[in-house]
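protein under study:
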Amino acid sequence: MNTLFTSESVSEGHPDKVCDAISDSILDLLLSQDSKARCAVETMATTGNVILAGEIATQAPVSSEQIEETVRSTIRHIGYEQQNFNWKNVKITNLIHNQSQDIALGVDRLGAGDQGIMFGYAKNEQGFNCEYMPLAIKLAHQILENLSLARHQGQIKGFEPDAKSQVTVEYDNTGKAIGIKKIVVSTQHQEDLSQEEIRETVKKYIEKSLPQGWMPQDKDILINPTGRFVIGGPEGDTGLTGRKIIVDTYGGYAPHGGGAFSGKDATKVDRSAAYMLRYLAKNIVAAGLADECLLQISYAIGVAEPLSLYINTKGSAKIPEEKILSFIKKQINLTPQGIINYLNLNRPIYTPTSSYGHFGRTPLQNGCFSWEKTDLVKELQQCL
């Protein structure tokens, strides 16, 4: 029996993603001056307002003016110059305070910044270059990223930053992707842009984003289904940091521990351990040890060593799963500090992660997306 699986993505102009970007840009500001800075910053954005809260600890304190400049610069880069949400005059309320001494105590001892569970996942989508990501979320991201790039480069006119996409992939009874059933794209636009113009433009970028020959029929492509999307962004819907954790990870294809990423430095295992498990899962699949790999890890606050490590290859492993786990435990330091050192996470590399997914991305020269490298493949292949 054929099956369908759907994932969604949102653009950098979605209200929640605006907040993720602001939180991560503040984190990068701190790390650019103090590589050991700690940060857990939350952002709320609504009509004409941005509210910052959370806690930081740094030996090179930044000023309120620097933080405000960073917020405005981030909003400007996204593209918000609307009457009711404009980088120039948005009101910024800064409620950030120093990190709790109780939390700092556990981290100072090189333990985890909190308890929790994290997951990492990778899948070999046969015949597709998806960077070992599920196909639906990869395509949903790609559609919006291509639209965003065209908007920033001035190739399309009348489109605003807020947008969402949704892709439904059909699989045959062997688990191989064979086509796309439905695509939904909603994009904010200026009032004088007709729905027909929007539809024709968006269709062009959908087709550009899909594997050749995979464009669905017109009836299966829903573009701005309500017929109008002029009021959007934080004016249309309040945004909060950390509300798009499924968009950020695997599009619902794999479990999520529940912790958000943006605005958190690498001592928070919500972020760093999820990055490490993605790195390990991707390398395991890229090495040919399995076609699919799910990893789970757990921590206790103030304790460095993980409490548990779990693997599930969905029956696709070429060697016993216990052998893969044994390799990880012997070769990889999974303490918070070990992960930070291995992936070099104490750098201002986080703002680009705030939109279009933290995984399935191309590693950048500045060290961003270091967890997407496949430099462990040769060592893992020795397990075969």
